[in-house]
Amino acid sequence: MFAAAVVSLGMPLLAAAADEAPDALIKRLSTDVLNTVKSDKAIQGGDLNKVIALVDKTVMPNVNFRRMTAAAVGPGWRQASPEQQQRLQEEFKILLVRTYAGALAQVNDQRILLKPLRAAPEDKDVLVRTEIVGRGDPIQLDYRLEKTPGDGAGWKIYNLNVLGVWLVETYRSQFAQEINAKGIDGLIETLVSRNKANAAVRG
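Request: output the structure for the sequence above.
Response:
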């Protein structure tokens, strides 16, 4: 169930126009990614290089990943050096991409249903609620987006809720334990080890 939901984090090949409504953006992007995956046997087979390319090209430009990582790390983020912050973003990205790769391999007949958007036109932070329907029970999948100004202006995802569980908060509790026990460097080492172990399993 989680695997099917993670797939819908996918974004478009081109950055969305700044004036596109956030719910329309999510609907279009989710549909685009599902259609792409269904036609790509390598991605369905869990080809990590192809998944990374997909994420880098279509997902990352539409995610505020620095904010997502900082929120997951919690108060320790402010104490981390710029180099440590960069390492944390890199390793957290790998962790999520490997989860994404496994999810993509399980796509079959899913489609996205959009729920009514409860937001005012002037809002800069919104919740977009969706359901993934296919075989089995519908999967709740909600997105938190913020509207960013300036270069690259538009709506960007900074959190994801699958079946009532927020992604950032889930990792924050895990990361807090590591930071309390081993510090920021210890968290980085744990992420590196986990990513290597996941790579070995897939290999």
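Strands lie at 111-114, 125-133, 139-148, 154-162, 165-166.
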